[in-house]
Amino acid sequence: MPVALDHLTPVEKTLVVTLSGRAADARAHRPLLDDRLSEIVSRRLSHAPVKLPGTVTLAVAVRSAMLDRLVSGFIAQHADAVVVELGCGLETRMHRVSPPTGVDWYDIDLPDVIDVRRQVIPELGRSHLIAASLTDSARWLQDVPRDRPAIVVADGVLGFLTESDNRRILEAITAHFVNGGELVFNAYTRVAARLMGTMGVLRSVGIPKGYRGFGFDHPDAIEQLNPKLTFLEEQLGAQAPEAARFAWPTRIIAKLFARWRAQARRGVWVVRYSF
Question: Residue 166: its pLDDT value, please?
Answer without folding.
Answer: 98
